[in-house]
């Protein structure tokens, strides 16, 4: 590519990265507002989440179009093509995270419209929300800084979120068994916890893409320890049963 073309490519790629980070900031705000609405019953926050979801969808379409134009106009090098592929995959996870945040807001509205439901403490859900919010923020930070080590931390954090989801599910089932009046609210809370757990999954997926983008290593299904090794540029640990015979 000529110097002029290189500069144009860098500018186009920078615009994609910038808009993706902007989209991620909107999704972060959606998660925070949905959980604030859960705690306060403020339905204006629910409406904000629903409006922001439209913004997220618009960004998804626009970034997709930008990526298509870049690939059509330029002949990116292997590493730049890897970046384009990674962002394209991350885009789907980010949009789906926005969808899950909207699901949380919808469940919150339903809970407060049925205010006669038996009260259940929200502490576990709020803690889960903080955890997945941190995961998403770190995944975006890792993307912005091209930091595979931070991305690997996000992958490890997903294990803790999975534990929180299972614990919340057990506790909510216990509430329903002990007091049938809690069933309706507990079901809504299970719905919210599941949506939060899925946001954690999407953040993990995005973090794995950051490692692929920076290191060229596909860490999906390799396990947390190997993800961390590959993020550091080390060779993965090969399980005994898959090692070749001497």
From TrEMBL:
GO terms for cellular component: cytoplasm. One of its GO terms (biological process) is intracellular phosphate ion homeostasis. InterPro entries: PhoU, PhoU-like_sf, PhoU_dom. The keyword Transport applies. Keywords: Cytoplasm, Phosphate transport, Transport. Homodimer. Plays a role in the regulation of phosphate uptake. This is Phosphate-specific transport system accessory protein PhoU. It comes from Bordetella trematum.
């Amino acid at each position: 590519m000529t110097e002029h073309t290189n500069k144009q490519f860098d500018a186009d790629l920078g615009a994609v990265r910038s808009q993706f980070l902007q989209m991620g900031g909107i999704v972060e705000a959606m998660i925070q507002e949905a959980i604030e609405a859960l705690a306060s019953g403020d339905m204006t926050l629910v409406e904000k989440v629903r409006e922001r979801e439209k913004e997220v969808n618009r960004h998804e379409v626009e970034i997709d179009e930008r990526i298509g134009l870049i690939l059509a106009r330029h002949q990116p090098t292997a590493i730049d093509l890897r970046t384009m592929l990674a962002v394209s995959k991350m885009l789907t996870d980010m949009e789906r995270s926005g969808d899950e945040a909207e699901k949380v807001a919808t469940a919150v509205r339903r809970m407060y419209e049925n205010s006669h439901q038996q009260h259940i403490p929200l502490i576990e859900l709020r803690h889960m929300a903080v955890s997945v919010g941190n995961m998403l923020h770190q995944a975006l930070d890792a993307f912005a800084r091209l930091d595979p080590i931070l991305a690997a931390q996000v992958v490890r954090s997903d294990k803790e979120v999975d534990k929180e989801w299972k614990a919340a599910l057990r506790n909510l089932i216990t509430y329903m068994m002990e007091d049938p009046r809690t069933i309706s609210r507990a079901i809504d809370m299970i719905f919210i916890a599941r949506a939060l757990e899925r946001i954690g999954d999407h953040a993990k997926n995005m973090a794995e893409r950051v490692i692929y983008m920076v290191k060229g290593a596909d860490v999906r299904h390799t396990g947390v320890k190997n993800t961390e090794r590959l993020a550091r540029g080390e060779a993965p640990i090969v399980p005994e049963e898959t090692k070749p015979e001497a």
